[in-house]
Amino acid sequence: MNELPGDLLYTKDHEWLRREDDGSVTIGITDHAQSALGDLVYVELPEVDLEVDEGGEMAVVESVKAASDVYAPIAGSIAAVNEELADDPEKINSDPYGDGWIVRMQPSDSIDEDALMSPDDYQQFLDDLDD
Amino acid sequence: MPFIPHTEKDTREMLQAIGVDSIADLFDEIPPELMIEHLPHVPHALTEMEISRLMRQRARMDGSPSCFIGAGAYEHHIPAAVWDIATRGEFYSAYTPYQAEASQGTLQVIYEYQTMITELTGLDVSNASLYDGASALAEAALMAVRTNRRVKSGRVLLAPGVNPVYEKVAAAIAGAQGLTFERLPQDPATGNIDFDAIPAGREPVAVVLQQPSFVGTLDDVDRLTDWAHAEGALMIGVVNPTSLALLKAPGHWGEKGADIAIGEGQPLGVPMSSGGPYFGFMTCKQQHVRQMPGRIVGRTTDLDGNPGFALTLQAREQHIRRSKATSNICTNQGLMVTAATIYMSLVGYDGLVNIANTSHANTAMLVDGLTAVSGVERLYSGPFFHEVALQLDRPVAPLLKALADRNILGGFDLTPIVGSDALLVCATETKTSADIEAYIAAFADVMNSGS
Is A69 on the interface with B (CB under 8 A)? Predict the structure, then answer.
């Protein structure tokens, strides 16, 4: 297992969040998630400006064997989507924490960090899944 | 794929395993008032000999009338080879096989079908079929909502000429999922859309146009398609496949073309059979394919580089996507589709053009003759394909009864739909000049005798 980037927050749905300097939050799926899904063939992205509730469906990632929803870990509006995934969804496989980002959100409230996991907590969560 | 029924012992063991006394108990949750004990005119249980005799008796009651009814199902000549080939053991199943890729022949038929239907409709992708034209409209509306996520209204605007039965079915299926269906205003002279009277700000998620319309008229497909796109709606075309040999394909409507085309596939080699089984077809632009319901067969190459066929885009389907599947009406009408594919192969493109031209010419001849009778005129002006609405000066039902007594099914009674004494007539390529003249003579006779 690769080391988890230390500057990110994580969810039980295997998503990661990065707080950007401008107050927005970049969101993607974790290395564990992309590896479980296998080669991605399609990503359904939300419309920019779409308002989503916490836990709301905002994207769908589809591999040759499965299609999974990506849930919004926070409430807010979609500020940007990674258009490059339309032609190259495998960026999520090759670089889940970098070029494989999915959306950037503008949070509607301050982010409740207690509801999210630190890298250590998420690593523990993954280890527990294996047990 | 053989059908292997359970033995009584199997059934008993399975019931025991789940702790249920009888199969009837499994249906407990259905309210008793919805359970039908006995259907009128349908006997309870008969032996094979008894049922054969009963069905022969009832079939004789139909006789062999000369049929001038269209209204959604159309009598066309079906070459004998169509059903001879379609009922071969290799094809004779309504289902795509469970180990689909082991049945390359079945998949190839569906692939060829998809190719033919996309060519007819001028769109990029076809699925492997749906139940029928009416449920295909429901599926198209639901697909439009999934695709056109910017529009939240759930409102689908229907041109005046959309089959009223299709609307009922679509509302029954999609109504519970938050969709509403509204009619666009009608110009009473032409039967077509009255563009000047369309209310502003309806924010439609989709706009539906049926061409030819249920009452036989031809509407301005380009104008409505462009209007729909300008309103931010998806454009859905409901089309008769035979008519596409002559009329503009939905993929070419307006500046950008319709987004989704659906229709009833019955005219392509499926007998009318008192209303079914038929099949619905559905095609769409490539960009919408992931929201398309049903199965799609794709062409690929195997490990040795040989061409082969495989079910594709399965990740959107219910066995993987569960409740989030693009549709849970995924059964296709494989046998009907097989017949339609063979039909299209046998008649070919030129054959379909001939069938369409002859049907149009026959209907024109019929309408000329019928409107020469006093008290009969066309309900709507304008061009038509193979179906025309007539305004009569008296009630339609007694007229149809009198014609039926002369072994002629004279048309579809539009009275409850248009609110006046109107009759919808259709003459396909199956009618000879003599058939049409006989109908006109009988019609004139009944009208003049004051029925």
Answer: yes
Q: Would the CA dihedral through B253, B257, B261, B267 be positive or negative?
A: positive
Domain B80-342 CATH class label: alpha beta
Closest Cα in chain A to B288:
A44
* CB within 8 Å of B148: residues ≥ 6 apart: B205, B206, B232, B233, B234
Contact B315 A62 (CB under 8 A): yes
Q: What is the distance in angstroms between the Cα of B153 and the nearest Cα belonging to chain A?
A: 15
What is B67-74+348-448's CATH topology? Aspartate Aminotransferase, domain 1 (3.90.1150)
As given in the structure block, the two tokens for residue B260 are 């989704």
**Does pLDDT of B336 surpass 60?**
yes
**Of B359, B411, B407, B408, nearest to B385 (Cα)?**
B359
Residue stretches of chain A with pLDDT short of 50: none
Q: Does A91 fall in a domain?
A: yes
The predicted pLDDT at position B331 comes to 57
Plot region of B216 (φ>0 → left; ψ -120 to 50 → alpha; else → beta): left
ipTM above 0.90, yes or no: no
Task: Report the predicted TM-score, pTM, of the whole model to 2 decimal places.
Answer: 0.88
**Which pLDDT does position B329 carry in this prediction?**
61
Q: At A87, which helix (H) or strand (E)?
A: helix A84-87
CA distance A33 to A30: 5
Instruction: Answer yes or no: is pLDDT of B168 > 70.
Output: yes
3-class DSSP state of B408: strand
Classify residue B377 by its DSSP letter.
E
CA B451 – CA B393 distance, rounded (Å): 11
Of A46, A63, A69, the CB nearest to B315: A63
Residues B196 and B204: their CA atoms lie apart, in Å, by: 17
**What are the angstrom distances between the C-alpha of A96 and each of B8, B248, B316, B439?**
55, 47, 23, 72
Shortest Cα distance, chain B CAs vs residue A43, angstroms: 10
Tens digits of per-residue pLDDT, B137-155?
Answer: 999 999 999 999 889 899 9
For residue B149, give the chain A residue with the closest CA.
Answer: A47
Q: Residue B188: is the preceding peptide bond cis (ω within 30°)?
A: no
Residues of chain B with CATH 3.90.1150.10: 67-74+348-448
Q: Which residue of B has its CA nearest to A68?
A: B321
Whether residues A46 and B321 touch (CB distance < 8 A) is answered with no
CB–CB contact A50 B320 (8 Å): no
Query: Å from A6 to nearest chain B CA?
Result: 33
DSSP state of B244: G
Q: Which residues pair with A42 in a beta bridge?
A: A62
List b or e across B279-302, with b for residues whose CB sees 16 or more CB atoms inside 10 angstroms. Answer: bbbbbbbeebbbbbbbbbbeeeee
